[in-house]
Amino acid sequence: MTSIKSTMTLFGALMLATSPAWAVTVTNQAKQEHTLTVDLGATENDHKVAAGKSLNVDCPVGCALRLRSGPAGYDRMADKGDKLVINQDGFLLYADEELVTGSVKEKPTDKGTKGDATQK
C-alpha cells in the first residue's frame, strides 16, 4: 500500500511540474479587471484577470482566447508556452506583438520583411 501511495505522490508531483509547459500566460496591463474566455473546443471557461495580474491557462492542445470586454470578434489562438497581454486599450495581444491599425504587424525574418521589394 505504501508503494501505491508513493507512486501516486510521484505522479502528482510530475503532473504539477509539467503543467506550466501546457500553460498560456495572460497578463492584464490594463487598469481594470477583464474577463477572459478560454475556448478549448468542446468547452468554454471564463476567468477573471485583475488589473496588473497574470493568469496561467492550461492549453495542452491549443485554444482560442477572447476578452468579453474587448473589441468584438478579436480572438487569439494560443498554444502552450505562449505569453499574451491585455493592453491599456483592452486588446488581447501576443507579448511581443505591436498593434497596427487593428491588425497584426508582420515580424521580419532573417531574410528580410515579407513583401520587401528590395529583397532579391
Give the arrangement of secondary structure elements.
Elements: H1 2-22, E1 23-28, E2 34-39, E3 44-49, E4 54-58, E5 63-67, E6 75-78, E7 83-86, E8 92-94, E9 99-100, E10 103-104
Tell me what you see in this structure.
This protein is an alpha+beta fold and 120 residues long. It has a domain at 25-98. 18% of the residues lie in helices and 36% in strands. It contains 1 helix and 10 strands; from the N terminus they run αββββββββββ. Strands 4-1-7-8 form a 4-stranded mixed β-sheet. 14% of the residues are buried.
* Number of helical stretches of at least 4 residues: 1
Please give the number of β-strands: 10
Q: What are the low-pLDDT stretches, counting only 5+ consecutive residues below 50?
A: 5-19, 112-120
Q: Nearest-angstrom radius of gyration?
A: 19 Å
Based on helices, strands and strand pairing, what is the structural class? alpha+beta
Shape: globular
Please give the share of residues in helix.
10-25%
Beta-strand content estimate: 35-45%
The helix/strand order is HEEEEEEEEEE
CA(first)-CA(last) distance: 69 Å
Quick take:
This protein is an alpha+beta fold and 120 residues long.
Q: Which terms would index this structure?
A:
single chain; 120 residues; alpha+beta; 4-stranded mixed β-sheet; 1 helix; 18% helix; disordered C terminus; signal
